[in-house]
Write a structure and sequence with these properties.
Order of helices and strands: EHEEEEHEHEHE
Structural class: alpha/beta
Low-confidence stretches: none
Mean pLDDT: 96
Radius of gyration: 16 Å
CATH topology: Rossmann fold
Bound molecules: pyrazine-2-carboxylic acid, zinc ion
Number of domains: 1
Number of strands: 8
CATH superfamily: Isochorismatase-like
Strand order of the largest sheet: 5-2-1-6-7-8
Helix content: 10-25%
Oligomer: single chain
Shape: globular
C-alpha cells in the first residue's frame, strides 16, 4: 500500500463520454476502470479530474460553422483540435463511469468550464497560464510523487504529466491504466514529450 503522505494518484477523466458508446469514445477506454479500481487498494490518496464543459464550448466542432470533429483551428493560444460535443456539464456523458470507484476520492477537479479556453491538463488550461489551482492543493498537502491514470493518454494524461513535471513533482504515468485517442501520431508524440521531460512510465503490476 502506497499510503505515504507524499504520494497520490490522480485519475484523469474516466467519464462516460470517453468510454464505450460515449461522444468522444477512447478505444478500449472502459478497460481502465477495473485496473484503476484495483489501485484503490494501493493508493490511499486518490483524486480525480472531470472534463466539464458548458454547452457551446469553443473546443466543440459544432460551435464553428463548417467545421468537423478532429479538424484543427488556430486560436489565441495556438492550435485547437475540434472535438465532438462531450462532457457537457450535468449530462450523463460528463458523469464518471458508473463502475469507477469514487467513494474514496479526496478531491475532484473540474476543468474546461470556461467557454473560450479548452483544458486538457489538470494543472493549467490550454492557454498554459490559467491555473486550475491543483498545484497549490498538492503542494499544500505535501505530495511529491504524482501517479497518473485514465483517459486519454495522449491528451489529458500527457498534458497533466508534463505540467506536473514543470511544477516540480516526480511523475509516474501508469500506462496500462490509460488509453489513448491517437490522432495523427499524437500518442507517439506524447510519449516522446513525456520521456524527454522525465516522466516515468510504469505498469500497475509493478505497484504493490
Ligand atoms: C480530453 C479531448 C478533449 C481528454 C478532453 O480527457 O483527454 N480529450 N477533452
Ligand atoms: Zn474536453
Amino acid at each position: 500500500m502506497i499510503e505515504n503522505a507524499s504520494d497520490c494518484l490522480i485519475i484523469i477523466d474516466v467519464q462516460n463520454d470517453f468510454c464505450a458508446g460515449g461522444a468522444l469514445e477512447v478505444p478500449d477506454g472502459d478497460s481502465v476502470v477495473p485496473i484503476i479500481n484495483s489501485l484503490a487498494g494501493i493508493f490511499k490518496n486518490r483524486l480525480a479530474t472531470q472534463d466539464w464543459h458548458p454547452s457551446g464550448h469553443e473546443s466543440f466542432a459544432s460551435s464553428h460553422a463548417g467545421k468537423f470533429p478532429f479538424e484543427t483551428i488556430p486560436v489565441g493560444y495556438g492550435e485547437q483540435v475540434l472535438w465532438p460535443d462531450h462532457c457537457v456539464q450535468e449530462t450523463h456523458g460528463a458523469e464518471f463511469h458508473s463502475e469507477l470507484k469514487v467513494d474514496d476520492l479526496q478531491l475532484i477537479v473540474r476543468k474546461g468550464f470556461r467557454r473560450h479556453i479548452d483544458s486538457y491538463s489538470a494543472f493549467y488550461e490550454n492557454d498554459k497560464i490559467t491555473p486550475t489551482g491543483l498545484t497549490g492543493y498538492l503542494k499544500n498537502r505535501g505530495f511529491q510523487n504524482i501517479y497518473l491514470a485514465g483517459l486519454a493518454t495522449d491528451f489529458c494524461v500527457a498534458y497533466s504529466a508534463l505540467d506536473a513535471r514543470k511544477e516540480g513533482f516526480d511523475v509516474f504515468v501508469i500506462e496500462d491504466a490509460c488509453r489513448a485517442i491517437d490522432l495523427d501520431n499524437s500518442l507517439a508524440t506524447a510519449i516522446q514529450q513525456m520521456d524527454d521531460a522525465g516522466v516515468v512510465r510504469i505498469n500497475s503490476t509493478t505497484l504493490e
